[in-house]
Every structure is written in structure tokens, then in C-alpha cells.
């Protein structure tokens, strides 16, 4: 059996020809961090879904054949990382993938893409939410935003939640299986000058918070960017708070590098300008350990 000196990640996402989201974000980020990314595309799109008139080829019926070939090659993975999944069958395929390729010391990251700003996406039915619950139970790390966290717990979404409520949500999600729960896009500022990331590690029962400066712009793919950086950091051996801080700093830098240009925001952040930052010396800046209950 050949040995691979470079850690290998199975990345199960869709692929957009234009617009920096999903695999076109995950591959350059994780490759820049020194990992081999093995993409398992769930669909191929002409552009991300923010662009009108996009075309899509659903690869669901081909995914099992691709996986069967990987099995025949006896490929192993140091991490499995899934993002947007468009159907019940795709969720089932990812669950089977994790069950087959799971090995000791492996990192399984699931970004349960379901909705945002208090609403589920049009393609996400209550049945899809139920299926996603069965997938996150297999994960080591999940990265829902606050909307998705509430949906996974069947509780009412509120933009204004106090820290005690947020900690209860994070812990409740961890009790469904994941060791680490990270909730993104939490806004606790009346003036919307800041957003926050909250996280909980069940292994040491510690809660963390990282502050992000709010910039009044929307770019698709920032969630994929955040989870990709966190995945790479954890696989490199960084602690949870350092991984959160590095991911937030990277996105903040990328958004600032993009915001000043006359640029169609639907094309995503200028990722290419900031990729070298992933290997720059790290300066911890904003992570905070919260009081334990």
C-alpha cells in the first residue's frame, strides 16, 4: 500500500463554473494550506445560483459510481467535508460515504446548508431538515448559521438572542452527535456594526466567541470560505479558538480587499488576492472564552 505524505480531504460539494462558492472556494483554500483535495461533485453549474439563468447538471446518479471507483482504489481520507446537498438521496449518499471511509483520527466536517436570515432556502423542505439531522449526527464538526441551528433544533428563530440562549442552542446541537458546534452569522449589535461566531467543544466543555466587524455587503461563498479555513486549521492541529480566529480574520481581509472595488458582489470575494494570508504568521486578535455554566 502506498503512503501519502500529504493529508487528503474528500470534499463533497457542487462545482460552479463562475462565482467563488463551494468547490471553487474549498479547493484553492485547502490546497494553499497544504492538503490534497479530492472533489466529489454533487452537481456542476454554469455559475453560482446568485446569477440569473444559471444552468445545472445534477450528478446524483453518478456519485455512487465515483465512490465505488474510489473504494476499488482503496483510497483513504484524513478528512471528509460536505457542504450544500440538494436532495434526500445526496444526503443518504454522504452518510454512506462517511460510514464506509470513516477511520480513527479522521475529521468529518458537515456544513448543513439549509437557509439564512430566518428562512429556509426554497429547495429545503422540512423533510430535508429531518434528513440533515441524521447527517450531522455523524459529524465531528458542524458549522450552521443561526437560522440553520434553529431549524435543526425545531425552535423559533430570533435575530436577537442573548448569550445564555445561544449557549443552550450550541450545546443541544452537540448532544446530537458533533463534538464541535460552530454557529456563524450571529448579530447581537443593534447598530449592526459587529457580528459574531460562537462555538462549543464538547470534549473540554468550553464555549468560545469571536467578533467580526460588519461590512454592509453580501458576497456568496463566505460561508464556504469560513468552513474551509476552519477545516484546514483543525487538520493542521490548531486549537478551536485559533481556527475560528484565523477563519474570521481571513474572511474579513478578503471582504475588505473586495469591498472597495466596483465589482459585482455576486461573483464572490477576491479570494485570489488573499490566499497567501493562509500561510502568514498568525496574530490572535479576537477570540474570547465564555463563562461555563
Structure description:
This protein has helices spanning 23-32, 60-72, 88-101, 126-136, 146-153, 163-174, 222-236, 240-259, 271-274, and strands at residues 8-16, 36-45, 56-58, 79-82, 107-110, 115-116, 119-120, 141-142, 180-186, 194-201, 206-213, 287-289. With 293 residues, the protein is an alpha/beta fold. It has a single domain, classed as 3-Layer(aba) Sandwich (UDP-N-acetylmuramoyl-L-alanine:D-glutamate ligase), CATH 3.40.1190. A ten-stranded mixed beta sheet has the order 3-2-1-4-5-8-9-10-11-12, sandwiched between helices. It has a two-stranded antiparallel ribbon with strand order 6-7. Helix 1 links the parallel strand 1 and strand 2. The longest helix has 20 residues, at 240-259. It is globular and about 50 Å long.
Features of the shown structure:
alpha/beta, UDP-N-acetylmuramoyl-L-alanine:D-glutamate ligase, ten-stranded mixed sheet, 37% helix, globular
Tell me the β content: 15-25%
How would you name the CATH homologous superfamily?
Answer: Ribokinase
Describe the strand arrangement of the main beta sheet, using strand numbers.
Answer: 3-2-1-4-5-8-9-10-11-12
Overall number of structural domains: 1
Q: Give the oligomeric state of the chains in this entry, treating copies of one chain as homo and distinct chains as hetero.
A: single chain
Radius of gyration: 18 Å
CATH class: Alpha Beta
Largest sheet: 10 strands, mixed
Mean pLDDT: 93
H/E element string?
EHEEHEHEEEHEHHEEEHHHE
- Tell me how many strands there are: 12
Amino acid at each position: 500500500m502506498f503512503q501519502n505524505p500529504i493529508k487528503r480531504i474528500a470534499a463533497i460539494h457542487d462545482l460552479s463554473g463562475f462565482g467563488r462558492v463551494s468547490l471553487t472556494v474549498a479547493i484553492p483554500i485547502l490546497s494553499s494550506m497544504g492538503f490534497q483535495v479530492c472533489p466529489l461533485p454533487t452537481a456542476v453549474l454554469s455559475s453560482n445560483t446568485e446569477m440569473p439563468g444559471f444552468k445545472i447538471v445534477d450528478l446524483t446518479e453518478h456519485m455512487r459510481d465515483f465512490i465505488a471507483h474510489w473504494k476499488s482504489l482503496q483510497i483513504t481520507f484524513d478528512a471528509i467535508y460536505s457542504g450544500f446537498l440538494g436532495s434526500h438521496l445526496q444526503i443518504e449518499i454522504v452518510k454512506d460515504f462517511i460510514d464506509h471511509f470513516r477511520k480513527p483520527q479522521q475529521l468529518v466536517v458537515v456544513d448543513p446548508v439549509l437557509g439564512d436570515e430566518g428562512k429556509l432556502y426554497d429547495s429545503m423542505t422540512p423533510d430535508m431538515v429531518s434528513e440533515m439531522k441524521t447527517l450531522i449526527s455523524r459529524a465531528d464538526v458542524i458549522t450552521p448559521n443561526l437560522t440553520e441551528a434553529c431549524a435543526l433544533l425545531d425552535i423559533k428563530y430570533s435575530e436577537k438572542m442573548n448569550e445564555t440562549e445561544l449557549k443552550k442552542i450550541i450545546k443541544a446541537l452537540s448532544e446530537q452527535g458533533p463534538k464541535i458546534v460552530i454557529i456563524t452569522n450571529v448579530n447581537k449589535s443593534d447598530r449592526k456594526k459587529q457580528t459574531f461566531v460562537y462555538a462549543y467543544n464538547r470534549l473540554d466543555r468550553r464555549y468560545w466567541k469571536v467578533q467580526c466587524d460588519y461590512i454592509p455587503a453580501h458576497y456568496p461563498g463566505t460561508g464556504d470560505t469560513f468552513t474551509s479555513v476552519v477545516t484546514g486549521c483543525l487538520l493542521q492541529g490548531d486549537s478551536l479558538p485559533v481556527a475560528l480566529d484565523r477563519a474570521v480574520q481571513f474572511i474579513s481581509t478578503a471582504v475588505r480587499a473586495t469591498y472597495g472595488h466596483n465589482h459585482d458582489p455576486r461573483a464572490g470575494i477576491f479570494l485570489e488576492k488573499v490566499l497567501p494570508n493562509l500561510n502568514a504568521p498568525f496574530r490572535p486578535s479576537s477570540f474570547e472564552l465564555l463563562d461555563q455554566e
